[in-house]
């Protein structure tokens, strides 16, 4: 069966393979090869027989085509309510059709499924809240992505991303040495302003093991420094692991379940090795979902729970404020109108809306809710990997209109977004639509307004 040199059914698993596919700028040759990539029908049939279980079959058969899911989808709204963007239609015309044909499909159909799965659904799961039958199109599209990955029909950037996880156990080419050096560098940069501050690596039996998004280590190392400052001010006994520090999973976005398992097991191995009391995940929604929500199942943990209690950063901040570990100087609270982006993965899918509102009540004087909000909020517009796929940039930018309008309706000039995908989407939203807003994670906003404990007062001198 015909396969390409770059576009094929073989996962990227070596540094040499990564360099080769990265050399194809924009994936031009990759997508050209995809047009001739044969579908391995026997393998596809076998996969469907093995993995298409009763829940998905029931959902496909019980959909009433009532259309109540339509207005739940921000892409349907952003595309002038195009019927082809109704969630039920999108899944029935792809996965549903694949099942009805019993895997007897061709290359053109698989490329169509790829385009729908990665450009017309962010797997935000909002549609499931409004389906009278309880059908979750996000879960089904996640499954479809896995089927497509197995056949090689996956966007260029996602193939690279899953390969990064296989080679580096991170979404970027960051080695253990790179990571430890970054921790030491940020400690040195920060301790001058905050004497006594440490970024402990591989400290056993700490109260907290802190895990991050590789983009912080690669592009935003100051985020690690900010986390260290807040842990320092809160008096936390914490550490980062030298290996197993990366929480995110582009492999999850790619539908590469094997690499997703590799990634999450690296984090759990760090927990087993260092034996912390709890884990705190950085300001990233899909990192939390990949390691805390989905991860235990990939790792084969029957309880469905992470080896230790695990908190999203929003949970830790709310707890620190409630317990007085961090105290806000009222005079330094945010004065300008501010709104909050509810991430699909830790608000809708993990129920942390109350913690987010408590934080806002402590740090903002003029907090304005988006409409809708909390678990009903719309996806940022770039989740599920859509932010990073060049092939679908135009579709992503159209989808950003819904979040643009939500923000404009609040009148807020600052959007707080404790999630990397949301942060990126809102940054790009401003670059595309120029609505005059700023955006921020929690950490840099908190540091200037936190009361410095008495025993650290000399730091301010």
UniProtKB/TrEMBL annotation:
Domain of life: Bacteria
Residue ranges annotated for the 4Fe-4S ferredoxin-type domain, each copy included: 60-135
Keyword terms of this UniProt record: 4Fe-4S, Electron transport, Iron, Iron-sulfur, Metal-binding, Transport
Domain (Cysteine-rich) ranges: 338-422
A GO molecular-function annotation: metal ion binding
Protein name per the record: Fe-S oxidoreductase
Organism: Desulfoluna spongiiphila
């Amino acid at each position: 069966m015909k396969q390409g040199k770059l576009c094929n059914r073989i996962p990227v698993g070596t540094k040499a393979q990564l360099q080769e596919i990265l050399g194809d700028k924009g994936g031009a040759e990759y997508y050209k090869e995809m047009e001739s990539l044969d579908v391995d029908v026997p393998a596809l049939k076998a996969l469907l027989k093995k993995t298409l279980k009763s829940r998905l079959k029931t959902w496909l058969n019980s959909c009433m085509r009532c259309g109540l899911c339509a207005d739940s989808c921000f892409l349907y709204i952003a595309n002038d309510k195009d019927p082809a963007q109704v969630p039920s239609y999108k899944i029935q015309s792809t996965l549903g059709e694949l099942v009805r044909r019993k895997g007897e499909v061709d290359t053109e159909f698989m490329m169509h499924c790829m385009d729908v799965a990665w450009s017309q659904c962010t797997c935000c799961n909002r549609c499931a809240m409004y389906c009278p039958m309880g059908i979750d199109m996000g879960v089904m599209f996640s499954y479809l992505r896995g089927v497509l990955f197995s056949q090689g029909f996956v966007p260029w950037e996602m193939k690279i991303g899953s390969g990064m996880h296989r080679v580096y156990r991170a979404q970027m080419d960051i080695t253990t040495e790179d990571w430890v050096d970054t921790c030491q560098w940020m400690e040195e940069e920060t301790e001058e302003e905050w004497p006594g501050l440490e970024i402990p690596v591989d400290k056993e039996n700490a109260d907290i093991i802190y895990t991050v998004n590789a983009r912080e280590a690669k592009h935003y190392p100051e985020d690690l420094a900010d986390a260290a400052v807040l842990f320092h001010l809160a008096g936390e006994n914490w550490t980062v692991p030298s290996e197993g520090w990366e929480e995110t999973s582009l492999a999850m976005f790619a539908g590469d379940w094997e690499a997703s398992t590799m990634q999450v097991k690296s984090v759990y191995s760090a927990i087993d090795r260092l034996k912390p009391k709890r884990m705190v995940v950085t300001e990233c929604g899909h990192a939390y979902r990949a390691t805390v929500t989905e991860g235990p199942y990939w790792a084969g943990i029957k309880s469905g729970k992470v080896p230790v209690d695990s908190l999203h950063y929003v949970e830790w901040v709310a707890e620190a404020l409630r317990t007085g570990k961090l105290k806000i100087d009222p005079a330094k609270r945010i004065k300008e109108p501010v709104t909050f982006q509810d991430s699909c993965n830790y608000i809708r899918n993990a129920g942390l809306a109350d913690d987010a509102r408590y934080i806002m009540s402590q740090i903002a004087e003029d907090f304005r809710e988006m409409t809708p909000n909390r678990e009903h909020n719309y996806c940022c517009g770039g989740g599920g990997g859509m932010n990073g796929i060049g092939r679908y940039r135009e579709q992503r930018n159209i989808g950003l209109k819904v979040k643009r309008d939500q923000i404009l309706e609040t009148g807020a000039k600052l959007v707080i977004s404790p999630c990397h995908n949301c942060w990126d989407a809102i940054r790009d939203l401003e670059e595309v639509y120029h609505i005059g807003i700023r955006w921020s994670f929690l950490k840099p906003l908190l540091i200037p307004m936190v009361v410095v404990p008495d025993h650290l007062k000399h730091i301010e001198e």
